[in-house]
Amino acid sequence: MAACRRLGARRWLQLLILLLAVLLIVLGCGGRKRPLPGAHEAGERVPDGGSAPVPRPAAPLLIRVGLVAGEERLVLQTSGPCRLLQGSQRRPAGRLAGAVHITLRAAGRRLLWSADGQGGESSLLIVQPLDPRHLLSWSNTPYRGELLIQPVDDRLVLINVVELESYLRGVLPWEMGRQAPEVQAALAAQAVAARTYTVSHLAERAELGFDVWADVRDQVYRGAAGEDSLCDEAVARTAGQVLRHEGQEIEAYYCSTCGGVTSSVEEVWPRPPRPYLRSHPDAIGGAEPFCAGSRRYAWEVTWDGEQLERILQRTLPEYLEYMGTGSRAAWAGERFTPRHGGADRRRPGRLRGLTVAARTTSGRVARLDVAMDAGVYHVRGDRVRWVLVPPDGGPDILWSALFSLDVVPGADGRPARVTARGRGFGHGVGLCQNGALAMAGRGYDFRAILAHYYPGARLEPLAGKGG
């Protein structure tokens, strides 16, 4: 009887388990399913009865910024633990425990490194902080992201690999300056312009191993040095937004002061015409130019004849070399007309005269003819600023090409005194920074500022490219 009772109890227990299993299945099919943990973050479809999939966030866009090239020796400093990676496959090369110096030397096609009792040899070295809050430094300047070092022609190239938005935080304070909150719209416009410029120039310096220079050849960038809260806010406010025309990021050039009228890009450099980079007044409705309050709106530079002659003997041969290849040569056209047979264009000789031979749509000098003993040098477009260097070297090129010349001859007929009277600072293409500041001060928002300086361009998200 006891065995029968135990058998009956076992059967009742099995039946109870079966009934509970059926009940759970029924409730599971009929009830609402909960989202899987982390489903939104992973970009998976949340099983909630047919909702649309959540898009996976785009990976951050990394920018390679050329900090310096042509150095035989570099010294870097870490501020915390780092890993060292080598080669394009990023193989482990070592670890650094804390704040140390890394010394690098060029050795042909390879580099030698040493740090904290370690050392090695590689074709490429990457220094990567274990914690992104620990910044890397070179030349007393801290940088976010990684530092990459590679040898090129027995010299070292130093590259900062950094996320796009962090890169812009290191650009705005140096390109636009620290401004008052009242002109925050101008900083936002500059952030969009700088972001668009960066994306449109990706891989343009590929032969050097990076995307953009960290100086005026592209955009002035000083890493995390001097980061500014208002500039950071402008970057964050416009995060991921760029200007496009016909589906492509525009060539978002900008300058300090346009002098009252912007430039058409094809008249300044050997670039094709762009509808959003056409010359137009820096004003609305015939009013005073927005940038009229800039201290570089009007300027004057004077040389005596001997000063200018010495400068031209250096800068004219440099101009011929710079404009002598590829698309530059085709755009520049005839660059030198010899005065006699056997004339050496590399030795200009004495200055005989200067003539503005042509002007652009905006009134800038399109061609400057410089008569020297060797012959006449025909200087085209914005490069006239590199030829007519101010005598005191400040700045190291002429303020702008929007100028007139007053030439006073000496007793021998040669120029004894030359004065350039001009307007503006920079090439004049695209956004005028001082004009943008004035527009912001008058209540224009950043979209209106961008529409004024890049007419026809559309503000769009940088979809699929991070940001």
Describe, in short, the structure shown.
This protein has 467 residues and is an alpha+beta fold. It contains twelve helices and 25 strands. The chain has three domains: 105 residues, no CATH class; 160 residues, no CATH class; 126 residues, no CATH class.
Overview of the structural elements:
This protein has 467 residues and is of the alpha+beta class. The chain has 3 domains: 105 residues, no CATH class; 160 residues, no CATH class; 126 residues, no CATH class. 25% of the residues lie in helices and 30% in strands. It is built from 12 helices and 25 strands. The strands form 6 sheets. Strands 4-3-8-11-12-1-13 form a 7-stranded mixed beta sheet. Strand 3 and strand 4 form a beta hairpin. Helix 5 runs antiparallel to helix 11. The longest helix is centred in the first third of the chain and has 29 residues. The chain is globular. The protein starts with a helix and ends in a 6-residue tail after the last strand. The N terminus is likely disordered.
Give a topology summary.
Layout lengths: L1 H29 L8 H4 L19 E10 L1 E6 L3 E5 L4 E6 L4 E7 L2 E6 L2 E5 L2 E5 L6 E3 L2 E3 L2 E7 L2 E9 H6 L2 H4 L8 H17 L11 E2 L15 H9 L3 E5 L2 E2 L4 E2 L9 H4 L29 E7 H18 L3 H7 L3 E3 L12 E9 L5 E8 L2 E6 L3 H4 L15 E7 L5 E9 L7 E2 H9 L4 H8 L4 E4 L6
Parallel strand pairs: 1-13, 16-24
Antiparallel strand pairs: 1-12, 2-5, 2-9, 3-4, 3-8, 5-6, 6-7, 8-11, 9-10, 11-12, 14-15, 14-25, 17-23, 18-21, 19-20, 20-21, 22-23
Helix pairs in contact: 5-6, 5-11, 5-12
Descriptive keywords:
disordered N terminus; 467 residues; six-stranded antiparallel sheet; 30% strand; alpha+beta; seven-stranded mixed sheet
